[in-house]
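Annex B. Sample input.
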Amino acid sequence: MKKIFIIILSHLLISFNTFVFAVEKHDEKFLKIGILAPFTGELKGIGEEILYSVNLALHDINDPSIKIYPKDSGSKNEKIIQACEEFQNEEIKIIIGPVDSTTNNELNNYENLIFLSLSNIDSGIKKNVVMMGINLESQLLAIKQFLKKQKKNKTVILYPKNEYSKHVEKNVKLVSFNNPKIFKYDQDPKKLTKQIEKITNYKQRKTNLEARIKKLEKSEKPKDIRELNMLKQKYTLGKINFDSVIIIDFGDSLKSVLTSLAYTDVSGKDILIITGNQWFDDTILEETSIKNFFFPSINLKNFNKFNETFYEIYKYKPNEITILAYDSVGLIYYLWNNSGGIKSVNNFNFKTEIKGKIGKFIISENKVIQKLDIYKLEEGNFIRNKL
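Annex B, continued. Sample output.
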């Protein structure tokens, strides 16, 4: 079996000095990294956080050969072309950014530049873009392995009708689950509840309960009275025709689905409820309808340490994607330092397993494939699943 080498990108330092942003002339001895992020407009806060995270990585690596050149993409990417022209003129070949995938067509016009996009949407990946985001393929691969270990083979996959539907369908097909039932739901709460009722066979299960209670009420046998008292605490009677459900959604829309499942008397005690990556969203802990569900995500211990260090220095919690900028710096530095420089995007496509802040990953066909852990939301806590 081929030996897998693990590369530790770096560890966060507690100490912090000053920014190391460069305005240097071209020199082959320097590793020049561009940062393409929104530094103006409504999203400028994310741009600043990305820059701060890059700075943390610079201090951890502690090599003055690395020079950073930040350029503004604008909050609506209106400055992308100008920034790319400047990168070309200044011979800055490797760029961390942009933060989304809406500008892929523009980036394709700059084939001599290499972009490490922080997006997790892989639609239309161009040959000069490496996708660093926690993509859906990685999430579904982790979920598929988890279902196999849990011996679940009657899976329902739920996802909303929106602009990302085709992206979801593409990745579900790519990962190839074992004959799942797939449903696309409306995000309108009234329509959603009726759809979940149909999927869970709610009306029939409710009718079963009412009929059984009616029958037991006519009996005076002690065992029937005990059963009657027990059934009066329930909302439905009868099994669901699936043993696991995957919900590819997040935020308020996800909460609506969880609420609808609870309303139809489906809980984590009856089936495995699994969602997409939730980035350990604290607001999920406030959701009272479903107490227990699972989701794939990055290394929680590293994520917490990164956030703690960031908070200690900057006094606030960063956006989740900023940890990807940190790992991007480490990845670029490793390749530059160990492969005689970075000649093209092909330098990033290698089978060696990398260990970064997010956890272990490989890069294939310009996409980072993360080996995500499975976590469980259990009684208000995020717990890493050990199976």
